[in-house]
Amino acid sequence: MLNFPDALAAGAKKTFEIRRFSCSLECHSKGWYMQQALTSKSLDALKPQAKRYEVHDIYCPGMSVRVSATGQKIFSVKFRYGLAQKRMKLGTYPRISLATAREKALDVMRQVDEGIDPTKRRRRVDMKVETVCSEFIR
Fold it and tell me: 13-137 in CATH: which number?
């Protein structure tokens, strides 16, 4: 795990190369924030650490992959709907590919831009087979 001096102020930025993968770290009020150009090769190279950590994708804003202490890699997307910041799980790597996760993330962001809360749409009570089929056909 990388340790950086606590003297760096919020907003500080460091760019470096780890095992041929370029990434950048930014210091925010809640700690370090890692951004990386995610590829299938770089996802395979992400190793579990003592605590869960998150790597944000440079090419798809809002999307990130969380690596748990057990080594599970979960794609998620963060968005703001109204005043609340929300996170939606997209799937687990390698069950869904990076390209599929990016498509899902863009779809979620598109729904937010249209004023639809994707988390509510996902968990509606009236979701019956007829409703789902008619919505799919539209």
Answer: 3.30.160.390
